[in-house]
């Protein structure tokens, strides 16, 4: 690391501490040339992910939008917000780990529905009704019958 004061190329690390829930490291350094001290921060570089929407428009991936959609679907349900935050973070990690620069909004919606389907059937149907744009009671009934056929009733499901 080059010293910001004198430009000398050698420095030693005097202290390292994790920051942001172990998402990065703060390092105190000392220049071997002039003795100046400075701080550096090290974080994992993430690729920006672009979401391709149904209409073909593009926007940056936003974890908070995923979380907000799940929170709306889970309104008045006994589901802790911390659990929804964890699911949103898992979805974000899955997307980042795929190393793709673009992802369709359809793929994101499918990931959310897969988790909500296990978590809470009512929240799943609420989310699916908006996401799949149910237009009449028959399509809702078809989805409910599929849920029932899969045997994902309250007795059989386990929270993640």
Notes on the protein architecture:
With 160 residues, the chain is of the alpha+beta class. 42% of the residues lie in helices and 21% in strands. The protein contains 5 helices and 6 strands. A 3-stranded antiparallel sheet has the order 1-2-3, with no helix packed on it. It has a 3-stranded mixed sheet with strand order 5-4-6. Strand 2 (24-31) and strand 3 (37-43) form a beta hairpin. It is elongated, with a radius of gyration of 23 Å.
> Which percent band covers the strand fraction?
15-25%
Distance between the termini: 43 Å
Question: How is the quaternary structure best described?
Answer: single chain
Averaged pLDDT, please? 87
Main structural class: alpha+beta
Strands, count: 6
User: Looking at the structure, what is the overall shape?
Assistant: elongated
The largest sheet is: 3 strands, antiparallel
DSSP helical segment count:
5
Report the uncertain regions: none
H/E topology pattern: EEEEEHHEHHH
Radius of gyration from the alpha-carbon trace, in angstroms: 23 Å
The proportion of residues forming helix, as a percent range, comes to 40-55%
Strand order of the largest sheet: 1-2-3
What's this, in brief?
By secondary structure, the chain is an alpha+beta fold. 42% of the residues lie in helices and 21% in strands. It has helices at residues 63-73, 81-97, 105-119, 121-131, 137-150, and strands at residues 11-19, 24-31, 37-43, 50-52, 58-60, 102-104.
């Amino acid at each position: 690391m080059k010293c910001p004061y004198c430009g000398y190329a050698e420095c030693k690390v005097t202290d390292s501490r994790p920051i942001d829930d172990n998402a990065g490291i703060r390092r105190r350094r000392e220049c071997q040339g002039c003795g100046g001290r400075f701080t550096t921060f090290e974080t994992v570089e993430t690729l920006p992910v672009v979401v391709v929407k149904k209409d073909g428009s593009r926007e940056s991936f936003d974890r908070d939008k995923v979380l907000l959609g799940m929170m709306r679907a889970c309104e008045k349900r006994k589901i802790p917000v911390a659990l929804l935050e964890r699911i949103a973070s898992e979805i974000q990690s899955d997307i980042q780990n795929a190393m793709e620069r673009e992802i369709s909004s359809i793929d994101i919606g499918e990931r959310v529905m897969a988790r909500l389907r296990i978590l809470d059937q009512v929240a799943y149907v609420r989310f699916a009704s908006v996401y799949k744009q149910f237009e009449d009671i028959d399509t809702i009934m078809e989805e409910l019958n599929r849920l029932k056929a899969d045997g994902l009733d309250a007795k059989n499901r386990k929270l993640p």
